[in-house]
Amino acid sequence: MLLGEYDHALDDKNRLAIPAKFRPAFEDGIVVTRGLDGCLYAYTRSDWQRLVEGRLAQIDTLGREGRLIMRHFFSGAAEAELDRQGRVALPAALIESAGLGKDVTVAGVYDHLEIWNREAWHRHLEEVEGSAEHVAERLAAKRD
After folding, report:
1. In 3-state terms, what secondary structure has residue 37?
2. More exposed terminus of the chain, fewer Cβ within 10 Å: N or C?
3. Other beta carbons within 10 Å of 62
4. Are 3 and 114 in contact (CB under 8 A)?
């Protein structure tokens, strides 16, 4: 399980050092793609495969929304290996799509990492902290 948040920086070659705590999970490779809410998602190969074969495989691509979400996740996705220093090179298109600058935050979110522009991450946290209780109440009500 991927947990915690870590501040890191992109180097001059657009490489991101994956936090040491997470590196063992990515020994077999990493898949980085556009995320939601303005960040990138990074999956282990097995968790990416599970997502693709589970939720994404069930999307009807004959409908416009299905095509849009499939394009969102697949067209920008990049498979890679971590180098000896635990870094992954991020494609320029993904960096641009998430508005990443030099300073980023890497957050573990259960089965994937989220890679955020650090300022955007802090703004997002303020929003989350202001609404988490309301969201929890609505989700709890749906279970009844």
Report:
1. coil
2. C
3. 7
4. no
